[in-house]
Task: inverse folding
C-alpha cells in the first residue's frame, strides 16, 4: 500500500490544502483485532443479555402468537374476516406486502451496491441490514399467500408440469412477482450466508460449550481461514454482489407493476418503478436505523456502529426521501398533465375531496415534512431524534401504500360502484403479527449470529491502522 | 318415470314401528303369493315376496312409507332422507309406477308434454302465483321434479312472459326452511285429523244458531273455487261471517269505483295505446294489480328503436308522454317525462285543477292553493290530455283517497278514454266479494271484543301483525275460545292461535284465481307438498264435506260442475297446460262516471304528512323471510335489509337530520316504540315522510327476524295510507343502513354525466342530431373516417367467427324494477350474504341496477336506471391480470370464469372498470341465507363468531339445496364469479342445435334477465348475425358503450334514454 503522508489538521491548513471537514472515524478508538472479535462475538457466546433484548423478544413473541391466531382464523373462515370488499378487493395484505418488500431493499443496497462501490462504512451495518432483508422478505412473502381466496391452491401460480397442461398466465404481473420475490429471497439468503461463514468459524473457535461448537462448526462449513478460502470467499461475495445489484432495482419495479400494469387511475402510472425503488430504499434505511439504534445502545456497540455510520445512513435517507417526494410531485403533475378526467378526479379525490385525504396528508407529513429535520447535523448524529424521524418514515411509507391501494380502488370509473374500506381487527392482527415475526427473528439473529461482520470490521481496522506502513 | 307420480313428499315416517315389520315377515304365505301372482294383471314387476303377497301388513307399510294423505312428518327434510326415499321409490316403481317427487295427481307440462322426464333437461309447468288475491301466470322450471325457477307465463294477460321480483322469489319461499312443517296444537305437535275434529265439533255446537259464533278471515279472494266453497259455507251457516283483509288494501280503488258508478268495478288500462298518461301518486309500473303487464304495455310506447336504424324517426313520433305527481319517489316518477313532488294531500288539489282545466264542473276553489309553477303545470297537463283525448290515461295510486279515484274516473270519462277500444276499460270486480275490507275487519274485531266469536278460522294473512293498531286485534282475538290459523309460517297470528295448520305453497297446491283482467288461471302444483301442508280449499272441504277431499278433487269437481256438457278432459288438460282458462276475461262494462265529485274530507294536517307504502321488496311483510327479496336493493334507495324514514333533502335540512340519524316517528298520537334511521331521498316531497310496511316481524324465521320496525303498530284505520299529522324527533345515536350504493346524491350524477355513463336526451335533441348520443365522447370503435382515425388501435385485431354474443339494454324502457336481478339470482344460484356483508359492499348480484340522479335540483332530480351485468369486453381487462388464467375469453366472445382454477387474488375485480365481479369472501353458497354478518370482534364475542357457520351444523338447509339450478355450479369460498351471459342457456341451445344438425336459431337464446324483463329492455343474441335483434339495436344511433374510451370494447351496450318532455313546460 502506498505510503501516505501523515499530517495534522494544522499542517493541512498550513499547506493550503482545501479545507475538509474532519471525518468521523468508522471505528471507535482503542480497538485492535482482538477487541473487535471480542466485542462482536461476546454477544453471541458469553455476554448476558440486556433487559432490552428480553423485552423486545417478549413483545415480539406476543405479536408472533397474534400472527398464529389471526392466520388460523383467516384460514378457518375466509377472506371475509378482513376489510376487503368490492370494489376495494386489495387491502392490508397488499399494502403490507409492498411495505415489507421495500424494507428489505436497504439490506441489499447496503451489502451489494455499497460493496461494489467500495463504501467501507457499510461494513459495520451490512450484516444487520442483510438479516433484516431476509426477515422482511419472509414477512412480505407471507402476504401473497394469506391474501388468496383459496391459499390451498396457491401452487397454481407456479409453472409446474401438470396434467391439465396449464401454465400460469404469464402476462399477469402477479406471476412476475412470484419470480421476482423468490429470486430475491434466495439470492439474499445465499449472500447473507456466505458472508456469515468466516464469522461462524470465529464463533466456533470461541464457543464455550460443545453444542455451540458443533452447531457453529457445521454452519461454518469447515472454514479454516486459509488464503485460498479468503480468495474464494471474496470472489463469491463480489459475484453475488453483482447478482444482487440488479435485484435492488428489479424487485420493487416488478412489485410496482402490480399497480402500474393495471388500468386503474392512480395505479396506471409510468413513474411507479423508480418511485417504488426509491421508496423501498427510503423505508429500508429507516427500518435499519430503527432496529440498529437501540441494539447498538443495548450492546454498547457505539464503537463499532459509530456516529459516522448513522450520519451516513441519515444522509442516504434524506437524499432518497427527496427522490420519493419528487415522485409525489410527479404524480400530481401527471394527473393534471394527462388531461384524463379519471386521473384528475382520482388525484383530487386523493388529496382533497375524498374520505382518505387525511391519510394522504399524514403521509406527506411523515415522508416529506418531518425528514427535512435531517438537514440538521445534530439530528442526524443524535440517536433519539433520528429514531423519531425513522419512525415517522416507517409509518409514512406504510401510509403511502395505503393511499395508493385504497384511494384508487374506492372511487374509480363508475360512481355507482364506489365503496369505502377499513381494515378490521384481523387485518391489524396479521400486520402486527408480521411485525412480531420480524422482531423475534431479529432477536434470535442478535442472540445466535454475529450481528456485525467481524472480518470486515477487522479490515476496516486494518485500513485505519496501516497508514504509514 | 311417468307423470303419474306416487306419493306425498317422502319424509321418513317414524310411525312404522318394528312390530309392523315383524308382522310383515310372518304373514307371508307362499301359497297365497303364488295364487296372487297367477291371478294378477297389475304390476309386472315385484321386488319381494311381501310385495307380491300384497299382504295387509305390507299395504300398511307402504301406506306409512308413502302416505297418500300423509301422516305427520316430524323429521326435517334432509338430503339423506331424500336420497333414501328416492331410492326406495325407484325400487318400488313396480308398485307405484312413478317418481316420488311430483304430485299424486296428473299435472300437465306446458304446451308440449314430453313422454317422460329427461334427466338434465328442465320441464316447464304453467301455474299461477298469487299476490293480493290476484294471480300472475307463471311458468315453473323443474329439474327432475324440483321447481328451480319461476318465469312469467307468456299466455297470461298479467304476465306476457314477464315476472316481477316478488313472483320470481316465491320459489325461495317454497323451499324456506323456516316454513311450518306440522300441525300445531297450542304449541305442541297435533294432527290434521284432530284439528278437523275440533273444528267440526265447534261447528256442530254452532249449528243450532246458524253458525253465529263462526268467523272466517281471509285475504282478498278471487278464486272461483274457494269463493264457491265460502258461499256454500255461508249458506249452510247463515249467521257465520266471512271477512277479508289485506294490509296493502285497495279500499280507495273499490270505494272510488262505488262513488263514481254506484257499484264495484275494476279498471283496466291499456297503456300501449295511451299517448298521454297522468299518474296521480300511482306507481303503476312497479306496484299494484297488473303492473307487470302495464310496464310491458308502457314500454312498448317508449321504443325509439324501429325508426332510427336508417336515421328516420317516424316511430319516435309515437313516444308517449308520462306526467307524474307523487310524494314518495317511485319508479313511475322516475320514468316520467315530467314529475312533480308534492305533499300527499296536495295531489288531489292539483288533480282538481287539471280536472277543471278539462272542463269538469264543480272543482270548487281548485287552483287557489296552487303555486305559480303548479298552475302552469296543471294547465299544460290539461291541454296535453285534451289534445290526446281518447288516447290518454289518468291513473291514481291505491293509497290516495277514494274521492280522487272517483275524480280520475270522471276525468277519463270526460276525455272519452272509456269509450270502447280505448285506453280505459271497466269490468266487474274480479274479486269474489268486493267489499270495504277495513269495515269488514272492524266488524270482526268488534264481535271478537264482545265475545260473540266462538271460532275464528284465519286462512293465510297475518292480521295480528298487520291489522291497524287501533283495532287492538290481538286483544280481541285473545277472547275467541277457538282460533285456527292456516299459513305457511308459524307467524305472529299462528302463535296466538290454538291450532296452526301449515299451508301449502302456490307451487304445491291446486287452486285457481283471476288475473287483473279477470282471466282465470288454473294453478297446478309442480311438486308434491314438501311438508304436511293443507290448502284453504282442503280446510274448507274438511268443514263442509263428510269426507274431506283433496285439493285436486275440489278444484276438478268445481270446474266439472262449472263446465257441464263439454269435453271436460280436454278442457282440463288444455287449461292446465296453458295455465289459463280461455275466454274468462271479464267483459267490458259500459260505465259512465258522474262528473260531480265531492272533494275528500281534509284531515287535520300537521307540519309533516306521512305516506305509508308497501315495501318494494318484501311487500306487506309476507316475504320478510325471503333472503332474495330482503337483499334486493330497493330500486330507488338501494337499501337492503331495513326500513327507514324517507325524507326530502329540504326537510332533512329543516329538521336538522342527517343520513343514518335515528328518529322517533309519531303518526297522529301513536309513536313507534323503537327509533328508525333516516334516509334522505332526493326527489321526495318536502314536509312529507314515507314509511314502508313489512318490517319489524317478530315471528317469521331466521332470515327476517327482527329486521326494521313495524309501521303497522302505529297505523290507524282512520288514516291507513296517508297520515295528516306526523312528526319526527331526533334521538341520540345512529344506525348504518345497509345499502349497495354509496350515498353521494348529486355529486355522482355530475360525474356520471361527465363520463357519459347514462346518456339521456330529449326527443328534440335526438331528432336534431343523430350523433348526439355518441358524439361528445371518445370511442375508439367509432372510427368512421379512415383517413382521420380516432384511434391507433387495430379495430380488426380480433376476428369473431361463428357466434358472437352481445347484449343491448334500452335505458328508455328500463324502469329499474329489480326483476332481472332476482331472475339472475334464481338462475345462477347466487347466494344471499346478509345485512352485515351488504354494509361492507359484498353483495353478490351478478346484475345490478345502478341508479343515477341528474340535474342540480336535489328536490326533484331526473332519475336514471342502468342495469349492469358483465360487459363481456372483447379486450377484457380482467383477463390479462389473472395469474392463473382462470378468466379467459371464449371463441364466441364470452369472458369465461373457471371457478376451479381461481385462486382468489381478486386482481381481476380491481382491474374491471365496470366492477361487475363478485367475490366469495365467505362460503356464501353453503351457509344459510344471510347469516354471515358476524365478521369481526366488533359486535360479537370471539367464541360466538368462531362457533358460527364454520361448522357443518350451519350448512345450508337441505331444502335450499333442492332449489339450486343443476346447470350452474355453486361456488365456494375464495373464488371470483360474475355474469356469464347465462352460458348454460347458450350451451343448451347449442346442444339442441347440434342434435338437430343446424345452427342456433336467430334470437334462440334468452338470458334470464332478458326473459323476465317486464319492459323488454334487454336484448341478447348473435352480433355476427346482422338480422338478429341485438344487431339491429346496436345499429341504432342511440347505441353507446359506457367507458368506451378505455377500449375494452364491451359487448354489452346501452341504448340512450330519450325523453319526451312537453315543450310548454321546458323552462
Result:
Amino acid at each position: 500500500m502506498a505510503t501516505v503522508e501523515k499530517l495534522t489538521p494544522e499542517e493541512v491548513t498550513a499547506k493550503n490544502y482545501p479545507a475538509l471537514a474532519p471525518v468521523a472515524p468508522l471505528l471507535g478508538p482503542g480497538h485492535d483485532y482482538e477487541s473487535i472479535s471480542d466485542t462482536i462475538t461476546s454477544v453471541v457466546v458469553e455476554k448476558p443479555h440486556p433487559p432490552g433484548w428480553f423485552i423486545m423478544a417478549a413483545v415480539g413473541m406476543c405479536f408472533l402468537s397474534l400472527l398464529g391466531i389471526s392466520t388460523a382464523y383467516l384460514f378457518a373462515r375466509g377472506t371475509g374476516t378482513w376489510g376487503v370488499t368490492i370494489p376495494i378487493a386489495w387491502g392490508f395484505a397488499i399494502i403490507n406486502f409492498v411495505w415489507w418488500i421495500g424494507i428489505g431493499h436497504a439490506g441489499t443496497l447496503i451489502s451489494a451496491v455499497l460493496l461494489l462501490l467500495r463504501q467501507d462504512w457499510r461494513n459495520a451495518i451490512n450484516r444487520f441490514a442483510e438479516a433484516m432483508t431476509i426477515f422482511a422478505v419472509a414477512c412480505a412473502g407471507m402476504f401473497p399467500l394469506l391474501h388468496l381466496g383459496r391459499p390451498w391452491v396457491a401452487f397454481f401460480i407456479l409453472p409446474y408440469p401438470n396434467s391439465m397442461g396449464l401454465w400460469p398466465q404469464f402476462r399477469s404481473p402477479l406471476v412476475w412477482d412470484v419470480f421476482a420475490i423468490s429470486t430475491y429471497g434466495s439470492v439474499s439468503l445465499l449472500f447473507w450466508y456466505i458472508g456469515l461463514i468466516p464469522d461462524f468459524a470465529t464463533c466456533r473457535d470461541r464457543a464455550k460449550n460443545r453444542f455451540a461448537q458443533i452447531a457453529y462448526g457445521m454452519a461454518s462449513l469447515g472454514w479454516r481461514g486459509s488464503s485460498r478460502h479468503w480468495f474464494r470467499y471474496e470472489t463469491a461475495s463480489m459475484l453475488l454482489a453483482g447478482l444482487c445489484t440488479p435485484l435492488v432495482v428489479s424487485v420493487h419495479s416488478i412489485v410496482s407493476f402490480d399497480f402500474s400494469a393495471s388500468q386503474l387511475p392512480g395505479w396506471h402510472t409510468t413513474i411507479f418503478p423508480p418511485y417504488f425503488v426509491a421508496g423501498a430504499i427510503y423505508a429500508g434505511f429507516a427500518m435499519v436505523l430503527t432496529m440498529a439504534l437501540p441494539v447498538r445502545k443495548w450492546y454498547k456497540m457505539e464503537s463499532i456502529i459509530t456516529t459516522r455510520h448513522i450520519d451516513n445512513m441519515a444522509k442516504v435517507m434524506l437524499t432518497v426521501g427527496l427522490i420519493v417526494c419528487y415522485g409525489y410531485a410527479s404524480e400530481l403533475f401527471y394527473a393534471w398533465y394527462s388531461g384524463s378526467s379519471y386521473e384528475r378526479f382520482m388525484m383530487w379525490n386523493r388529496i382533497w375531496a375524498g374520505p382518505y385525504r387525511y391519510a394522504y396528508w399524514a403521509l406527506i407529513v411523515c415522508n416529506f415534512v418531518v425528514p427535512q429535520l435531517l438537514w440538521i447535523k445534530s439530528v442526524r448524529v443524535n440517536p433519539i431524534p433520528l429514531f423519531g424521524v425513522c419512525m415517522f418514515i416507517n409509518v409514512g411509507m406504510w401510509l403511502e401504500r395505503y393511499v395508493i391501494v385504497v384511494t384508487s380502488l374506492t372511487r374509480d370509473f363508475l360512481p355507482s360502484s364506489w365503496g369505502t374500506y377499513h381494515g378490521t381487527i384481523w387485518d391489524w392482527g396479521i400486520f402486527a403479527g408480521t411485525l412480531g415475526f420480524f422482531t423475534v427473528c431479529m432477536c434470535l439473529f442478535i442472540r445466535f449470529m454475529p450481528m456485525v461482520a467481524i472480518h470486515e470490521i477487522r479490515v476496516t481496522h486494518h485500513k485505519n491502522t496501516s497508514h504509514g506502513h | 318415470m311417468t307423470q303419474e307420480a306416487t306419493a306425498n313428499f317422502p319424509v321418513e315416517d317414524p310411525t312404522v314401528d318394528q312390530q309392523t315389520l315383524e308382522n310383515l315377515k310372518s304373514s307371508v304365505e307362499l301359497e297365497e303369493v303364488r295364487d296372487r301372482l297367477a291371478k294378477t294383471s297389475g304390476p309386472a314387476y315385484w321386488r319381494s315376496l311381501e310385495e307380491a303377497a300384497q299382504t295387509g301388513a305390507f299395504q300398511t307399510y307402504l301406506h306409512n312409507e308413502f302416505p297418500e294423505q300423509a301422516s305427520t312428518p316430524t323429521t326435517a327434510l334432509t338430503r339423506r332422507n331424500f336420497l333414501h326415499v328416492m331410492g326406495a321409490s325407484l325400487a318400488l316403481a313396480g308398485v307405484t309406477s312413478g317418481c316420488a317427487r311430483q304430485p299424486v295427481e296428473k299435472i300437465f307440462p306446458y304446451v308440449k308434454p314430453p313422454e317422460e322426464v329427461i334427466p338434465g333437461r328442465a320441464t316447464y309447468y304453467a301455474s299461477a302465483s298469487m299476490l293480493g288475491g290476484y294471480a300472475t301466470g307463471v311458468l315453473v322450471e323443474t329439474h327432475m321434479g324440483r321447481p328451480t325457477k319461476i318465469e312469467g307465463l307468456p299466455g297470461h294477460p298479467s304476465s306476457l312472459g314477464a315476472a316481477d321480483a316478488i313472483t320470481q322469489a316465491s320459489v325461495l319461499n317454497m323451499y324456506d326452511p323456516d316454513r311450518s312443517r306440522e300441525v300445531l296444537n297450542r304449541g305442541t305437535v297435533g294432527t290434521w285429523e284432530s284439528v278437523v275434529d275440533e273444528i267440526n265439533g265447534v261447528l256442530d255446537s254452532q249449528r243450532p244458531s246458524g253458525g253465529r259464533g263462526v268467523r272466517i278471515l281471509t285475504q282478498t279472494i278471487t278464486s272461483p273455487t274457494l269463493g264457491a266453497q265460502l258461499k256454500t259455507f255461508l249458506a249452510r251457516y247463515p249467521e257465520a261471517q266471512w271477512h277479508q283483509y289485506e294490509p296493502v288494501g285497495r279500499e280507495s280503488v273499490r270505494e272510488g269505483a262505488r262513488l263514481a258508478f254506484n257499484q264495484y268495478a275494476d279498471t283496466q288500462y291499456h297503456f300501449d295505446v295511451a299517448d298521454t298518461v297522468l299518474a296521480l301518486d300511482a306507481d303503476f309500473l312497479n306496484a299494484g294489480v297488473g303492473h307487470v303487464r302495464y310496464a310491458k304495455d308502457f314500454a312498448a310506447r317508449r321504443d325509439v328503436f324501429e325508426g332510427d336504424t336508417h336515421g328516420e324517426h317516424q316511430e319516435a313520433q309515437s313516444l308517449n308522454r308520462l306526467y307524474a305527481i307523487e310524494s314518495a319517489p317511485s319508479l313511475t316518477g322516475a320514468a316520467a317525462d315530467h314529475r312533480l313532488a308534492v305533499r300527499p294531500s296536495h295531489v288531489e288539489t292539483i288533480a282538481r285543477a287539471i280536472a277543471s282545466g278539462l272542463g269538469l264542473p264543480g272543482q270548487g276553489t281548485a287552483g287557489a292553493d296552487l303555486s305559480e309553477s303548479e298552475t302552469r303545470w296543471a294547465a299544460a297537463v290539461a291541454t296535453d290530455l285534451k289534445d290526446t283525448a281518447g288516447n290518454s290515461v289518468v291513473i291514481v295510486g291505491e293509497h290516495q283517497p277514494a274521492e280522487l279515484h272517483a275524480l280520475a274516473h270522471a276525468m277519463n270519462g270526460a276525455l272519452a278514454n272509456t269509450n270502447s277500444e280505448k285506453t280505459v276499460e271497466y269490468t266487474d270486480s274480479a274479486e269474489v266479494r268486493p267489499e270495504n275490507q277495513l269495515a269488514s275487519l272492524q266488524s270482526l274485531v268488534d264481535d271478537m271484543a264482545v265475545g260473540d266469536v266462538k271460532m275464528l278460522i284465519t286462512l293465510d294473512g297475518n292480521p295480528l301483525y298487520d291489522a291497524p293498531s287501533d283495532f287492538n286485534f290481538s286483544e280481541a282475538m285473545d277472547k275467541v275460545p277457538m282460533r285456527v290459523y292456516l299459513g305457511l309460517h308459524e307467524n305472529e297470528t299462528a302463535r296466538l292461535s290454538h291450532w296452526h295448520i301449515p299451508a301449502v305453497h302456490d307451487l304445491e297446491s291446486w287452486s285457481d284465481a283471476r288475473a287483473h283482467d279477470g282471466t282465470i288461471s288454473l294453478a297446478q302444483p309442480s311438486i308434491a307438498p314438501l311438508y304436511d301442508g293443507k290448502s284453504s280449499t282442503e280446510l274448507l272441504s274438511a268443514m263442509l264435506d263428510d269426507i274431506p277431499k283433496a285439493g285436486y278433487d275440489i278444484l276438478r269437481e268445481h270446474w266439472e260442475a262449472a263446465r257441464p256438457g263439454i269435453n271436460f278432459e280436454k278442457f282440463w288438460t288444455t287449461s292446465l297446460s296453458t295455465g289459463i282458462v280461455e275466454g274468462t276475461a271479464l267483459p267490458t262494462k259500459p260505465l259512465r262516471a258522474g262528473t260531480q265529485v265531492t272533494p275528500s274530507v281534509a284531515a287535520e294536517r300537521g307540519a309533516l304528512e306521512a305516506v305509508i307504502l308497501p315495501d318494494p321488496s318484501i311487500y306487506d311483510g309476507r316475504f320478510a323471510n325471503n333472503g332474495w327479496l330482503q337483499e334486493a336493493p330497493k330500486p330507488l334507495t338501494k337499501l337492503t335489509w331495513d326500513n327507514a324514514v324517507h325524507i326530502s333533502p329540504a326537510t332533512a335540512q329543516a329538521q336538522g337530520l342527517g343520513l343514518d340519524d335515528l328518529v322517533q316517528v309519531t303518526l297522529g298520537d301513536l309513536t313507534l316504540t323503537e327509533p328508525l334511521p333516516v334516509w334522505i331521498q332526493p326527489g321526495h316531497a318536502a314536509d312529507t315522510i314515507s314509511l314502508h310496511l313489512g318490517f319489524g316481524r317478530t315471528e317469521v324465521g331466521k332470515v327476517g327476524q327482527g329486521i326494521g320496525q313495524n309501521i303497522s303498530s302505529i297505523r290507524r284505520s282512520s288514516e291507513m295510507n296517508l297520515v295528516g299529522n306526523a312528526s319526527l324527533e331526533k334521538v341520540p345515536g345512529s344506525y348504518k343502513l345497509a345499502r349497495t350504493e354509496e350515498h353521494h346524491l348529486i355529486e355522482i350524477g355530475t360525474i356520471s354525466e361527465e363520463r357519459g355513463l347514462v346518456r339521456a336526451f330529449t326527443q328534440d335533441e335526438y331528432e336534431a342530431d343523430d350523433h348526439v348520443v355518441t358524439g361528445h365522447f371518445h370511442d375508439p370503435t367509432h372510427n368512421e373516417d379512415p383517413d382521420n382515425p380516432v384511434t391507433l388501435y387495430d379495430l380488426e385485431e380480433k376476428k369473431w367467427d361463428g357466434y358472437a354474443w352481445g347484449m343491448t339494454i334500452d335505458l328508455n324502457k328500463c324502469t329499474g324494477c329489480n326483476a332481472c336481478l332476482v331472475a339472475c339470482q334464481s338462475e345462477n344460484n347466487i347466494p344471499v350474504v346478509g345485512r352485515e356483508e351488504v354494509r361492507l359492499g359484498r353483495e353478490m348480484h351478478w346484475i345490478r341496477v345502478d341508479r343515477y340522479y341528474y340535474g342540480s335540483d336535489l328536490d326533484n332530480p331526473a332519475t336514471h336506471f342502468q342495469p349492469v351485468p358483465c360487459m363481456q369486453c372483447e379486450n377484457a381487462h380482467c383477463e390479462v391480470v389473472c395469474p392463473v388464467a382462470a378468466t379467459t375469453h371464449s371463441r364466441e366472445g364470452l369472458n369465461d370464469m373457471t371457478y376451479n382454477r381461481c385462486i382468489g387474488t381478486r386482481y381481476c375485480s380491481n382491474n374491471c372498470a365496470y366492477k361487475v365481479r363478485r367475490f366469495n369472501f365467505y362460503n356464501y353458497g353453503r351457509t344459510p341465507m344471510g347469516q354471515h354478518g358476524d365478521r369481526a370482534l366488533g359486535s360479537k364475542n370471539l367464541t360466538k363468531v368462531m362457533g358460527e357457520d364454520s361448522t357443518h351444523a350451519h350448512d345450508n338447509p337441505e331444502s335450499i339445496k333442492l332449489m339450486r339450478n343443476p346447470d350452474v355450479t355453486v361456488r365456494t369460498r375464495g373464488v371470483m364469479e360474475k355474469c356469464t351471459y347465462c352460458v348454460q342457456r347458450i350451451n343448451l341451445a347449442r346442444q339442441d342445435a347440434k342434435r338437430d344438425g343446424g345452427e342456433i336459431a336467430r334470437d334462440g337464446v334468452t338470458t334470464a334477465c332478458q326473459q323476465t324483463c317486464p319492459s323488454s329492455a334487454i336484448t341478447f343474441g348473435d352480433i355476427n348475425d346482422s338480422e338478429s335483434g341485438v344487431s339491429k339495436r346496436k345499429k341504432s344511433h342511440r347505441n353507446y358503450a359506457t367507458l368506451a374510451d378505455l377500449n375494452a370494447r364491451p359487448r354489452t351496450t346501452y341504448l340512450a334514454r330519450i325523453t319526451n318532455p312537453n315543450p310548454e313546460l321546458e323552462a
